[in-house]
């Protein structure tokens, strides 16, 4: 093999959005300075608004959004971490992704804040109740206040829901919202959750709705990782929020039969609805295929990205069918399935045809 | 005298004793106390204390305000150090043994950078404090940096000492480890390190890894068993060598008095609950030290073990050939439909 090749810079491979073959790190002078459509920015807020802004959430295809980057990944010495306690990422002007610092809690749960014309929805509440350590409420209040000001709204009612009320990594921050005005909190117990989504007679086959005002979030019961697991579908951004059911990490199956049925339900959902991304509640995989970080790590410099392509559901379903009734770990490039084993369980079995690379271990 | 490691190993330990004439030049202003040769051989075992509770991390790691290393003087010539759980989840223990001529440090923790975790500064402060108290010059005391076994959470901070004068550092291979102590018949051979009137006995105790030592301090009669036997999950990689090492310890217990058996970590709660691998908060830790009875009982349990698996002896978990970080934890959210 010829070893003397000079590497050629390929902007596409390097994540450079420039589509031409040449690299223009300082801008291409040949590009038009006033491209067509430049006046139509992505902003949903008019430049000179008069009164309250009502946004039209109907759109062809998914609403644009940005998510292409790595998350803050902790530090070697957790005690010396100086990163933000809640990292906020604006996906678009009505959708915010937030993550708890992994040096506050190793689970580093993701929480999502969505806005509609008549209110906001917070999906999941993180793993820490102490507002000094994990100021979720303060962060959410700040985003809502800024959003409300931009839209000329005086009252933005907030609904707080969870992908699982029993999950201690996602229900701890709920207490920070107790007593907040114009706020509706989802209950933690399964029976109350069913009533909350009006699914008493239709659990888990039916779907519920949360109307944020022209942006109706669908509630899909998806038990499997948790007895009371639910997923949320946002028809504006075409995102499925799956919590602990599907995420790039060590998925601990609570009940394998329920798990398969829920994945089947999501697969059917994907076939009948456009899905751009699946966003789970955590990231535990490394960017090396099949490799996950152990629990409790507060430094994960080689994390996989959060977002998952919808086609991954097929892989999850096929894998889930393989582990039903067995106590085992199944490794896939983007996730691992743990059925009936310790959360720390490892396996030497590695999927065929996948590069088996071990990353450096930092200390 | 120029000494390389080979010369150090081949020479009798006596030749390192600082000549009395040199000691006479000691600056009187610096030495607040006249240097008296400390007697490490009578009234044994030397008494000492251990903390009721060690510093054990915090619920939110980034809000931890404890010192990077907990320093505990067991008695005035023996220091126990422990890395903060929020600086490294391994939170290894380390020992400093002072003698009339030199200081032995066993284990150096799990962080490489002095800027991240200033172990070097902590150790230097301990040595200065001891030297001042006992009329020595800190720079005259040779520091021996050894470790219990060949795992990074017990030698990572060696780096911080590479430019320290008058310091010998154990190498990171099995050959260099046994060579450092001048052993030719590892693991059975027991060698004696003379710190200047204070003897440390060292022999092999493979099993967790093949390259591991047990350290017995004749002054405090503390037996330091590294990761081969400690309050937590003793990961037994190789059963037969480990069992043989246990048998060797039993023979030792029959012949010599032992006050405490101590290891490198604590991974258990006071009610025997297992703190899983990697946690940075262990709110209710069991004591670090084990009794001789607990060690003997573990040996009795070990005699009955024929299969790989995790066995709880009451004092420790024996993890026979289980994979590195496997714990007994269960998925708390598992349910029947």
Automatic annotation (TrEMBL), chain A:
Biological processes, Gene Ontology terms: antibiotic catabolic process
InterPro entries in the cross-refs: Metallo-B-lactamas (IPR001279), NDM-1-like (IPR050855), RibonucZ/Hydroxyglut_hydro (IPR036866)
Region (Disordered): 1-41
Domain called Metallo-beta-lactamase: residue spans: 108-282
Residue intervals passing through the bilayer: none
Domain of life, per lineage: Bacteria
Feature: compositional bias, Polar residues: 1-23
Family per similarity comment: Belongs to the metallo-beta-lactamase superfamily. Class-B beta-lactamase family.
UniProt protein name: Glyoxylase, beta-lactamase superfamily II
Biological source species: Granulicella rosea
From TrEMBL, chain B:
UniProt GO BP: antibiotic catabolic process
Entries under Pfam families matching the protein: Lactamase_B
Cytoplasm found in the keyword field: no
SMART domains hit by this protein: Lactamase_B (SM00849)
Metallo-beta-lactamase domain span: 91-265
Keywords assigned: Signal
Signal peptide: 1-23
Keyword DNA-binding: no
InterPro entries: Metallo-B-lactamas, NDM-1-like, RibonucZ/Hydroxyglut_hydro
Domain of life: Bacteria
UniProt similarity note: Belongs to the metallo-beta-lactamase superfamily. Class-B beta-lactamase family.
Name this polypeptide is given: Glyoxylase, beta-lactamase superfamily II
Organism classification: Bacteria, Pseudomonadati, Acidobacteriota, Terriglobia, Terriglobales
């Amino acid at each position: 093999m010829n070893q003397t090749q000079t590497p050629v810079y390929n902007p596409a491979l390097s994540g450079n959005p420039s589509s031409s073959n040449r690299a223009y790190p300082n801008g291409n002078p040949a590009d038009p300075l006033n491209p067509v459509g430049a006046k139509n920015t992505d902003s949903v807020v008019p430049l000179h608004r008069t009164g309250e802004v009502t946004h039209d959430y109907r759109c062809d295809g998914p609403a644009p959004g940005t998510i292409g980057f790595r998350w803050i990944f902790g530090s070697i010495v957790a005690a010396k971490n100086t990163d933000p306690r809640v990292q906020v990422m604006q996906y678009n002007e009505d959708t915010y992704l937030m993550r708890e610092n992994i040096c506050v809690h190793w689970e580093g749960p993701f929480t999502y804040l969505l806005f509609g014309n008549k209110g906001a929805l917070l999906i999941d509440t993180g793993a820490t109740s102490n507002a000094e350590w994990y100021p979720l409420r303060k962060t959410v209040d700040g985003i809502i206040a800024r959003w409300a000001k931009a839209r000329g709204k005086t009252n933005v009612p907030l609904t707080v829901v969870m992908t699982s009320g029993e999950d201690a990594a996602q229900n701890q921050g709920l207490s920070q919202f107790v007593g907040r005005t114009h706020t509706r909190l989802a209950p933690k117990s399964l029976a109350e959750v069913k009533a909350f989504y009006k699914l008493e007679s239709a659990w888990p086959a039916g779907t519920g709705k949360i109307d944020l005002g022209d942006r109706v979030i669908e509630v899909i019961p998806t038990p499997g990782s948790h007895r009371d697991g639910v997923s949320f579908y946002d028809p504006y951004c075409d995102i499925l929020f799956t919590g602990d059911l599907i995420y790039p990490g060590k998925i601990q199956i609570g009940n394998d039969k329920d798990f398969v049925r829920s994945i089947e339900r999501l697969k059917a959902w994907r076939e009948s609805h456009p899905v751009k991304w699946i966003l789970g509640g955590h990231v535990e995989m490394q960017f090396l295929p099949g490799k996950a970080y152990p629990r409790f790590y507060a430094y994960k410099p080689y994390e996989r990205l959060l977002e998952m392509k919808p086609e991954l559901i097929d892989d999850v379903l096929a894998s889930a069918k393989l582990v039903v009734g067995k106590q085992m770990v199944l490794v896939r490039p983007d996730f691992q399935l743990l059925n009936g084993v310790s959360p720390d369980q490892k396996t030497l079995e590695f999927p065929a045809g996948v590069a088996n690379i071990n990353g450096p271990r930092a200390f | 005298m120029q000494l390389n490691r080979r010369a150090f190993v081949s020479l009798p330990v006596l030749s390192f004793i600082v000549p009395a004439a040199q000691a006479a030049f000691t600056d009187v202003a610096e030495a607040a106390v006249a240097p008296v040769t400390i007697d490490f051989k009578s009234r044994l075992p030397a008494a000492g204390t251990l903390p009721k509770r060690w510093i054990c991390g915090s619920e939110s790691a980034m809000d931890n305000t404890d010192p990077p290393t907990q320093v505990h003087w067991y008695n005035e010539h023996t220091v126990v150090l422990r890395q903060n759980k929020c600086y490294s989840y391994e939170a290894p223990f380390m020992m400093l043994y002072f003698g009339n001529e030199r200081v032995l440090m066993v284990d150096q923790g799990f962080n490489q950078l002095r800027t991240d975790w200033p172990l070097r500064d902590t150790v230097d402060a301990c040595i200065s404090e001891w030297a001042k108290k006992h009329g020595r010059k800190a720079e005259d005391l040779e520091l021996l940096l050894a470790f219990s076994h060949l795992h990074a959470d017990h030698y990572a901070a060696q780096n911080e000492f590479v430019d320290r004068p008058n310091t010998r550092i154990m190498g990171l291979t099995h050959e260099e480890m046994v060579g450092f102590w001048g052993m030719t018949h590892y693991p059975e051979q027991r060698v004696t390190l003379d710190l200047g009137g204070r003897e440390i006995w060292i022999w092999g105790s493979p099993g967790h890894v093949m390259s591991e030592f047990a350290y017995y301090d004749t002054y405090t009669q503390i037996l330091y068993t590294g990761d081969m036997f400690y309050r937590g999950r003793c990961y037994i990689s190789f059963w037969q060598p480990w069992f043989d090492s246990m048998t060797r310890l039993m023979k030792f217990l029959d012949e010599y008095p032992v006050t405490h058996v101590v290891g490198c970590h604590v991974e258990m709660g006071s009610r025997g609950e297992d703190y899983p691998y990697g946690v940075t908060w262990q709110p209710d830790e069991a004591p670090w030290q084990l009794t001789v009875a607990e060690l003997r009982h573990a040996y009795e349990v070990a005699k009955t073990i024929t299969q790989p698996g995790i066995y709880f002896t009451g004092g420790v978990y024996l993890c026979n050939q289980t994979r590195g970080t496997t714990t007994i934890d269960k998925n708390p959210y598992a349910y029947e439909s």
